[in-house]
Amino acid sequence: MLEMRPDCETCGTLLPAEAPGAFICSFECTFCAECAEDLDEQCPNCEGELMDRPTRAKKHHAKHPPSTVRHFKG
Question: Are 49 and 42 in contact (CB under 8 A)?
Answer without folding.
Answer: yes
